[in-house]
Amino acid sequence: MSQLRAAAAGGLRRSGGRAAPPAEQSRKGASSRRGPPVPAPPPPQHLFSDTAEIEALRGSLLAWYDKCKRDLPWRTLAATEPDADRRAYAVWVSEVMLQQTQVATVIDYYNRWMQKWPTLQALAQASLEEVNELWAGLGYYSRGKRLQEAARKVVSQLAGRMPRTAEDLQKLLPGVGRYTAGAIASISYGQATGVVDGNVIRVLCRLRCIGADSSSPAVIDRLWDMANALVDRSRPGDFNQALMELGATVCVPKAPLCGECPVKQHCRARRRKLFGKPTLVPDVEDCGVGDCPLCPPAAEPWDSSLGVTNFPRKAAKKQPRVERTATCVLERRGCHGALEYLIVQRPSSGLLAGLWEFPSLPLAQGLQEEKQKEVLADHLQAWTGQPVATRGLRLIGEVIHIFSHIHQTYVVYSLALDRDVTLEPALSSSRWVTEEEFHASAVSTAMKKVLRS
């Protein structure tokens, strides 16, 4: 507990904030005495309160990381690049790409990105179309867009110099949140600040039997406290990467390799699995504090068959909304005889912002095929500038694509124009492309599925 108090006093309670001056702290204290009572802190067994244990955990984890870490291109750049701004940029790109994307997928994207835009200045000069084209397949295209917007801000407003602390990174750069700021600052600049991502959440929840909803703000704040208290002061970047590496390769979600874990002697979930409820290791349900904010809910007790995978607990996932969209693959023969397709650009904000797609429009639930053809034909006329007959629309089938929050069904139609028709796009945000040009354009994975159908 003393470690956590020290971390809070050092301004590390939240990576985006600073410790209040003494006068401000005293005013806040007076204000809190007039308000509702402050809830009691969690019991010590949920936290890291022993200095010797913290030092031992740091040493074991860093020794394992030095021996077992994966050879990844962004780690090489972070370790060898002498220029602080280039180093931070390299780490930044990797962290944005790695959010909800597997390392194996990211490596090729990262290498191509850094080869094309090796500096902030190079990225700032690129077009959004180029960024979207390279980002295609990584998901969440808005991340690539925000990354470029932030790079342009660094170049135009910050004289090309990246902010040097987690606090300033989060405050000054659009799209840089608490985790990304902490990762850049610790890995690139050696700032002793922790990080909390999905892997770290899993590791910390198992180490300290934290069974409350790990996505709740209260639990997340406690995990940040722990991460900031644990981070090694002399090697913060390596420590944070080691903690994430442990979660990615050993302390995995469904089949953790507990026997290979370098910090298994500090893991309360493992002790619980091996020894049940010994007196020296209190049961998390019997931690001694009523309504403990970090214990599992009473309705979800320990399941011995799950072992350490009892942790972390998450709230029930919200079901994605169901949507149906009519999409038309409109094709013609180009001047050289090659088959061409009409693609149109999506709005600059919202889902898949700025990407190209086949002409599409949302469908009301329960709409019959003939009515679908009518509304689609009207929509196509807006893009082609000419009336479209419904009889020419041929139903190909349905393509299902799952976004994080949308279960999308594309009802796919095709429309082949006569060979002697030379239709020009009616709007500047549309164009004819060959199949090769289609795949080279900034199109979503869903549209590639549609073309394959």
TrEMBL record:
Species this chain originates from: Brachypteracias leptosomus
Q: Name one GO cellular component term.
A: mitochondrion
On whether 4Fe-4S is a keyword of this UniProt record, the answer is yes
Q: What is its EC number?
A: 3.2.2.31
Q: State the organism's lineage.
A: Eukaryota, Metazoa, Chordata, Craniata, Vertebrata
What does the note under cofactor report? Answer: Binds 1 [4Fe-4S] cluster.
- PROSITE patterns named among the record's database cross-references: ENDONUCLEASE_III_2
Which BP terms from GO are recorded?
base-excision repair; mismatch repair
What is the name of the protein in this document?
A: Adenine DNA glycosylase
Q: Where is the composition biased (Pro residues)?
A: 36-45
The family database entries (InterPro entries) matched by this protein are listed as: DNA_glycosylase, Endonuclease-III-like_CS2, Endonuclease3_FeS-loop_motif, HhH-GPD_domain, HhH_base_excis_C, HhH_motif, MIG/MutY, MutY_C
Record's superkingdom?
Eukaryota
Task of the protein: Involved in oxidative DNA damage repair. Initiates repair of A*oxoG to C*G by removing the inappropriately paired adenine base from the DNA backbone. Possesses both adenine and 2-OH-A DNA glycosylase activities.
Broadest EC class assigned to this enzyme: hydrolase
Cell location: Mitochondrion; Nucleus
The protein's predominant localisation is: mitochondrion
- The reaction(s) this protein catalyses: Hydrolyzes free adenine bases from 7,8-dihydro-8-oxoguanine:adenine mismatched double-stranded DNA, leaving an apurinic site
For this UniProt record, the keywords arranged alphabetically read as follows: 4Fe-4S, DNA damage, DNA repair, Glycosidase, Hydrolase, Iron, Iron-sulfur, Metal-binding, Mitochondrion, Nucleus
**Positions of the HhH-GPD domain:** 97-249
UniProt record similarity statement: Belongs to the Nth/MutY family.
Region Disordered: start and end of each range?
1-47
